[in-house]
Design a protein that fits this description.
With 245 residues, the protein is α/β, with parallel strands linked by helices. It is built from 7 helices and 9 strands; from the N terminus they run E-H-E-E-E-H-E-H-H-H-E-H-E-E-E-H.
C-alpha cells in the first residue's frame, strides 16, 4: 500500500519567495511531501485576521491576491489541512533585536538580567499580529507550526549594525546560540517550533553573508531579501523535520 505524502504549506510575505525559487530551481528534495505556498507582499498582512480557526483575508481583493500564490487557489489558510505550516518571514522582524541583544550580552555594564531579556523578547514577539497567527494555528490543530523569522540584514550596508551596538559585530557563534535558545524557549511555550537562521549563513556577528542575498542587492539597495540558496537551507530543514515526524 502506498503511503500518502506529507503536506506542507509555506506561508509568508515577500520573504517566502526564496523558498518558491528554491523549489523551482531544483535545490530542494521534496520527495514524500506535497508543498503548497500561500502568501503575498507584507503590506497585505494588514488585511488578514484570525477568524473561524483559520487565517482569513478581510476582503475579496486580498483573498484573491493570496489565492493566486497557491496552486489550489486557497483563499484562506487552515493549519488543520496540513501536517506542517512553515511561517516564512511573515513580517516577524526579530532580526531588529539582535544587534542590541548581542551587544548587551557582550557589554558587562549593559547586560540585561535573564528575566528582563526574556520579557523584552517575549513582548516584542507578542506585539506582532503574524506571530499570533502562528500561536493560534498551533493551538487549533494537530499540525506542526514552524517559524523562520526574517533573516538578518545582508552585510555591507551602512548601519546594518548601528554604531551604538558595535560589539554585536564581534559576537561568537556560541553567543548567538545562547540568544537563539532564549527565543526558541519563548516560541516553544506558544506551541511554535522556531528555526534559527543557519549559522553558516551569518557573518559579522548578526549579518547575512552576501552569498545569500538577492541578485544586484547593492544596486537595488535590498539588504533584506535572500536568494534561492537561502530558501533551500530553510525549506530543507523544515522538510527534514516533517519527514522525521
Amino acid at each position: 500500500m502506498l503511503l500518502e505524502n506529507k503536506r506542507l504549506c509555506v506561508f509568508g510575505d515577500s520573504h517566502f519567495i526564496c523558498t518558491r525559487q528554491a523549489v523551482k530551481s531544483g535545490l530542494v528534495d521534496a520527495t514524500g511531501v506535497d508543498i503548497e505556498f500561500w502568501g503575498n507582499a507584507g503590506a497585505q498582512f494588514r488585511h488578514l485576521a484570525w477568524r473561524n480557526d483559520r487565517i482569513e483575508p478581510l476582503d475579496d481583493y486580498t483573498a484573491g491576491r493570496f489565492a493566486k500564490t497557491n496552486r489550489h487557489g486557497r483563499r484562506t489558510l487552515t493549519a488543520a489541512d496540513f501536517d506542517m505550516v512553515l511561517f516564512m518571514g511573515c513580517r516577524i522582524d526579530l532580526y531588529r533585536l539582535f544587534p542590541e541583544l548581542l551587544h548587551r550580552r557582550r557589554t558587562g555594564d549593559q547586560r540585561l538580567s535573564p528575566g528582563v531579556e526574556r520579557r523584552w523578547i517575549h513582548d516584542f514577539l507578542h506585539r506582532l499580529q503574524p506571530y499570533h497567527f502562528a500561536r493560534h494555528s498551533a493551538a487549533s490543530a494537530d499540525s506542526r507550526v514552524v517559524l523562520a523569522p526574517i533573516s538578518f540584514d545582508t552585510a555591507g550596508f551602512d548601519e546594518t549594525i548601528p554604531p551604538r551596538f558595535s560589539e554585536a559585530r564581534n559576537a561568537r557563534p556560541q553567543e548567538r546560540d545562547a540568544a537563539w535558545h532564549v527565543v526558541q524557549g519563548i516560541a516553544r511555550t506558544d506551541g511554535i517550533e522556531l528555526l534559527r537562521q543557519p549559522d553558516e549563513t551569518v557573518i559579522d556577528g548578526c549579518c547575512t553573508d552576501p552569498a545569500y542575498a538577492v541578485q544586484k542587492h547593492r544596486e537595488r539597495n535590498d539588504r533584506t531579501h535572500k536568494n534561492a540558496r537561502y530558501g533551500a537551507r530553510i525549506l530543507t530543514t523544515a522538510l527534514d523535520m516533517l519527514r522525521r515526524a
